[in-house]
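Rotation project, supervised by the postdoc (A.L.). Task for the rotation student: set up a whole-complex structure prediction and record inputs and outputs verbatim in this book. Inputs entered:
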Amino acid sequence: MIDLLKVVNLYKSFGNNKVLKGISFEVKKGTVYGFLGPNGAGKTTTIKILAGLISFDNGEIFFKGMNYKKYKKKILRHIGYLPQNPVFYNYLTPFEYLNFIGEICGIGKTIIKKRVDEVLHIMKLSNVANRKIASFSGGMIQRLGIATAIFNNPDFLLLDEPTSSLDPEGRIEVLEHIKSLKEQGITILFSTHNLNDVERICDEVSILNEGQIIVSENLENLKKKYIQPIFDIEFEKVPPNLNEKLLRLPYVQCVDINHNNVLVYVSNVEVAKQNLIKAIAEFDTPVLSFTLKKPTLEDIFIRVVNINVNV
Amino acid sequence: MSTFKAYFRKEVIEGIRQYKYIALATGIILFSILDPLMLKFLPTLLHDKIPANLINSLFIFQPKDVIRNYMKDLFQIGTLFVVFTVGGSVNEEIYSYKIVFPYSKGANPVGIVLAKLTHYALVICLFLLIGFSLNYYYANTLFKGKKIGFSVLMLIYFLFCLYYLFVISLTLLFSSITKKNITAGFLSIIINYSTIIFSQFKLFNKVTPYNLIQLANNFNLKDGKITVWFVIFLCGIFIVITIRKINNVELN
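Outputs recorded:
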């Protein structure tokens, strides 16, 4: 597949605060690229740079082979951007706002009219097209945000945590919309700190932490390598030298002890399923619970950092 | 041009729905009617408190005096209405992130600033025209004495339009460098009112925007060319700086 976007060694600082420390990644045409990371990792900054809202200190960006700095205006015409908290002129109606956006994009009047009807229909906002935005719910605001982002028929869509402020129903709805946009051939860069969202729609994933990409994989590889279940064991009292003894087992990658709770990260779940419980039994300490849990983002970080350290 | 058109239309809707036109009309037009009526009825209102001979000598008003009184109110009160209406125009776009979507669609800062300037300038010039016309009508209808010609009125109108163009461009500049409407408004008011002090010095008089008000008060443009051109120059400088400020803004 062809690269639509190529980011090379991107740096950005705000005063003394180094937000991006030389990140590089590539987004292939027609894919959904997930940007995963905790708050403050640099996801929003990267997306804002790509959306032309802030500058960058160093590095290079290429969009369809064009240098971003040189052809910024031209490139922006092909990009749609949805901010984390979209803000509109609340006294306008969606119909008026989209007309306003259409005019800014320099589209002809008849095309604007057609496109307004189209995007309002796609985002299921036709019935509230003439209602003031001030009266909209969070979900409706987000849908209007997507409608605005896709108004200029972008090839590339930047979505900054589009589901973070939504209830579960709204989240699923927005994710379905994103899926359908992908089916229309739009390439999407999607930032989130929700692992479920990534699993649901992304093809490729990068994990950002403290301004650096700590892992970049396609979803399948990421699942195999990092999104593996974790053994969550609760002891009545944690036995002495548990950490060292467990780490001696060949399939154990990392052990995280928190009071009487122990998280065991393993490299091979199937082997661990058969053997870990036997190893635990050898400690001769009462075990209150022994479960396999789905990893959270935090768990993946621990695993990724651990693997990188070992490498 | 597409940004200019889009923003101009948006500003018109905003003016109507955010009651900005009502605020501006109140500050500019209301006194054009109130002033002549007040001056007309002042002697009647005060006849119990002041001796009749004093009233007759103190309150003799001619149409010129009525128009001067309106000009005084325009400078003192009208400016306040304009400054606090325009004050949030740029900073609200930036700091409440309303500009994010337009910017991400390639909106041109030149178009944004010029649309705002043109919109407010046109609206204020229109309100000034209505205000001066009403004031002129009432002044000539209610008061006896030497009447001023319509051409002189147009001269005054032109000077006030230019003065308000200065006020708008200065306020837009402050709006682009401050975060709050009220801060931009106060800074603009301080500068506007302090121009009176500068106009007292002969050295600065001709390059002080307040000289436009003084020229209007004298119903004369004599020796006013320097002031007119200097104020236009200042407006240009303010607008260029405002555009540069918006252009360099980081929407973080």
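Student's summary: Chain B has a mean pLDDT of 89.
Supervisor addendum: The interface with chain A takes residues 2-3, 5-6, 9-10, 13-14, 17-18, 96-98, 100-107, 250-252 of chain B (CB under 8 Å).
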